[in-house]
Design a protein that fits this description.
This protein is mostly beta strands. It is built from one helix and 38 strands.
Length: about 650
């Protein structure tokens, strides 16, 4: 509320309070002549020379000249202790948007990291119109290689994309033709707050095309050519560089509730390694039932570009799921063998069920069994309840791996009822793990949430305190907290604390027989970041994204997280998904940071759609509904959205 409104409110209250005194003092004698009603006359305060009241939140002059545009500059300094080694992430982060009628929408995401030295520059353009219903999407800088749609809709296998420093283009025609190409130097994203790019040398070139022949048929082809690429940080530094050519082709048919896609991948790598993989992927929907099924045969040593992909496997899989207003269950089996006879063989079975007792209560359970040379099983059971204290969930997890490892964990998740604009959830975990006869007991308490503390001060983040006891007793904290002080409409200061010295070991998980994308181990570290931010917007056509000139606007800020318990809502222990591309209304793009956070400032009030590009989400994680999430933006408010990435069973 501005000073002028406060002054008006005080004056109004004062006049209301003293009005009875005026009424008592204004006594007219009964024998006095009563004056007639005075003629009405318009009167202006100060002769009408008062300046116009400033709009709420407006403290600068808006520049309405030129095309609509937005920009942000952030200066970041930090102090990091990573595994006992002290370092810094100091530099600038630049972002911006330009909305044009003739050339589409442009998004800029750039980082100039002085210490350690690294520069990221990404300029993306989307929806540039051309004659005959053609549209173009182009990117230059640090990007992910594009992928045709047929390579993204696989249930069990997929063709990966790769981060490169280069350029890409995509041409779309009225929903029936898709043409793509990219070229660049492969690399790996790094950094905590200021992203960097570690090049792997060499080059990677990709090309692809897809044709949708009406409602029933689709066909596509994709090509990748890697030349002298280093294997990356997960492989020994003495490993030789990789050169390989790969080809992917697919054809799909669908009719009614059935869709079947046939796929083939061929790769030729160094030392004459030639490999072919084929698989059939199908889905049938019947009322509330969904069937997923497939068969596969993949030669050893298969690669896509310079990346190793699923290899030396043959077998099949089947999944059956059902959902209505009360019941939700699924089950399946994988039968896996090896082409060479040297890899894992066996069966992998899963089953999960959830029952909605009433509007406020639900229960569920599930089991996973892996029968192979290393037999293992896991099981869970949970109960959920909505009360006046919020949403509660208690879950019991048990797992065993060939008898040498056993783990039992009890988790209590609570989402608390808080005023609109804030959110608070907690997780309390007690677990015991046995490895080779040694027992380890852990307890942890996590708090996740955020909201506005004042009209200019807000906070969000996660804090976890963990105690681990075996032969010794150790306690540590894990934190990721951001405090945002908005000085005015253009300037703000953000203080961030990051700490991942949590001693809790990773949970015992029963991995399927088909290997999934490996995750990079995070080194224990502590960091403090201080960010000075300046942002502004201008333009005659529209100031907010998707709005009209002078229209109301707000902000979208969210987290893409890995929903480890398939609850649909973020628990305090769920991690964020880093370096995933998020697109707003099909036009503007950004990338999640190391903690899965993303933000779209200055978005027009109303409904908008966020789309998660699944190319760089690690398997088996995916975002339902085609990766699309609806968000309602309210004027001068920040709309917080948590996007859950679920795990395929």
């Amino acid at each position: 509320m501005t000073f002028g409104r406060v002054l008006h409110a005080i004056l109004g209250l004062g006049l209301a309070a003293i009005q009875p005194a005026w009424a008592q003092q204004t006594v007219v004698p009964s024998n006095a002549a009563q004056p007639g009603p005075a003629a009405y006359e318009d009167q202006l305060i100060e002769g009408g020379t008062l300046p116009q009241l400033r709009q709420e939140g407006e403290d600068t002059v808006y520049d309405s000249e030129g095309i609509p545009r937005y920009w942000r500059v952030e200066a970041v300094t930090s102090n990091i202790n990573e595994g006992g080694t002290k370092s810094h992430e100091n530099g600038l982060r630049l972002g911006g948007r330009i909305d044009t009628q003739d050339y589409g929408a442009f998004s800029l995401d750039s980082t100039i990291r002085v210490q350690p030295g690294s520069t990221i520059f990404t300029l993306s353009q989307r929806a540039m119109p051309f004659d005959h219903d053609w549209f173009a999407n182009n990117s230059i800088g640090n990007i992910y290689t594009p992928a045709i749609d047929l390579s993204r809709v696989q249930y069990r296998f997929y063709v990966p994309t790769a981060p490169v420093r280069g350029a890409s283009t995509e041409w779309l025609h009225d929903g029936d033709i898709q043409v793509q190409a990219s070229v660049g130097e492969p690399g790996v994203f790094d950094g905590l707050r200021l992203s960097g790019f570690e090049p792997l040398n060499g080059s990677l070139t990709t090309a692809g095309a897809q044709w949708n022949g009406g409602p029933h048929w689709s066909a596509g082809v994709q090509f990748a050519d890697a030349r002298n690429v280093n294997p990356g940080p997960l492989v020994s530094s003495t490993a030789p560089s990789i050169s390989a050519q790969s080809l992917f082709a697919a054809g799909a048919w669908q009719d009614g509730g059935t869709r079947i896609q046939a796929n083939v991948v061929e790769s030729d790598a160094d030392a004459g390694r030639h490999a072919v993989g084929i698989w059939l992927d199908g889905e049938t929907r019947q009322d509330r039932y969904r069937h997923n099924y497939g068969a596969f045969r993949l030669d050893p040593d298969m690669v896509w570009g310079y990346q190793q992909i699923a290899s030396d496997l043959q077998g099949g899989y089947y999944r059956l799921s059902y959902q209505d207003q009360r019941w939700q269950w699924d089950g399946g089996v994988d039968v896996v063998g090896t082409v060479s006879g040297k890899g894992p063989e066996g069966e992998y079975l899963t089953g999960n069920v959830r029952y909605q007792i009433d509007r406020t209560s639900a229960v569920g359970t599930g089991t996973t069994i892996r029968h192979s040379g290393n037999n293992a099983w896991s099981s869970f059971a949970f109960i959920e309840k909505q009360t006046r204290f919020g949403s509660s969930r208690v879950q019991l997890d048990m797992a065993s791996d060939s008898g040498s490892q056993r783990q039992t964990t009890v988790t209590f998740d609570q989402t608390w009822p808080v005023p609109e604009g804030t959110r608070v959830s907690t997780s309390f975990v007690v677990g015991q793990q046995t490895v080779a006869g040694d027992n380890l007991t852990t307890t942890s308490l996590s708090i996740y949430g955020g909201g506005d503390l004042t009209s200019t001060l807000s906070i969000d983040g996660t804090v976890r305190v963990t105690n681990a006891r075996d032969r010794v007793n150790s306690t540590a904290a894990n934190a990721d907290v951001n405090l945002n002080w908005r000085i005015n409409s253009r300037w703000s200061i953000v203080a961030s604390i990051f700490d991942n010295r949590d001693p809790i070991p990773p949970p015992l998980t029963i991995d399927p027989l088909i290997p999934l994308t490996p995750t990079v181990a995070i080194v224990q570290s502590r960091a403090v970041f201080l960010t000075l931010r300046y942002e502004d917007h201008a333009g005659a056509l529209s100031s907010p994204i998707g709005g009209k000139a002078g229209g109301a606007a707000g902000t979208i800020a969210g987290v893409l997280f890995l929903d480890q318990r398939d609850s649909g809502s973020r628990a305090a222990s769920d991690p964020g998904a880093p370096d995933v591309t998020i697109i707003l209304d099909g036009l503007y793009s950004t990338r999640t940071d190391a903690q899965g956070r993303f933000e779209f400032p200055l978005v027009a009030s109303g409904r908008h759609v966020l789309t998660v590009v699944p190319d760089n989400l690690p398997l088996p994680w995916y975002v339902g509904n085609g990766g699309k999430v609806e968000v309602m933006v309210r004027t001068r408010e920040t709309s917080s959205v948590d996007i859950a990435a679920s795990k395929r069973h």
